[in-house]
Amino acid sequence: MEWGFDAVLLNTAVSRAVDPVLMAKAFSIAVESGRLGFLAGPISAQELAVPSTPDLGKLFSSEAPRFSAERL
Fold first, then answer.
1. Span 20-41, pLDDT tens digits
2. Distance CA 61, CA 70 (A)
3. How many C-beta neighbours within 10 Å does residue 28 have?
4. What is the reported pLDDT for 52?
5. I need a surface site. Which of 13, 15, 32, 60 has the fewest CB within 10 A?
């Protein structure tokens, strides 16, 4: 849709799925989500990289608590 297409051809994906109705619904939601993302618009362009989340008060990876598989 982003490239200007008017439709999505997906017969084989739906017709050969174990649950064709559910697969058709999944594609419907995917197309609708793409359209909503397009309508929401992109973020503004910037000349330099700017973090979207500030680092203040956050743990760095070297300070993060370690978890072992034994504790899980």
1. 999 999 999 998 998 898 899 9
2. 21
3. 12
4. 74
5. 60
Token pair, residue 69, equals: 């598989």
Measured CA to CA, the distance from residue 48 to residue 15 in angstroms comes to 47
| Length, in residues, of the chain | 72
pLDDT range class, residue 14, cuts 50, 70, 90? very high
What is the three-state SS of the chain? CCCCCCCCCCHHHHHCCCCHHHHHHHHHHHHHHHHHHHHHCCCCCCCCCCCCCCCCCCCCCCCCCCCCCCCC
pTM over 0.70: no
**How far, in Å, are 25, 30, 37, 43, 59 from residue 62 at the CA level?**
44, 38, 35, 31, 8
Q: Which amino acid is at 65?
A: P
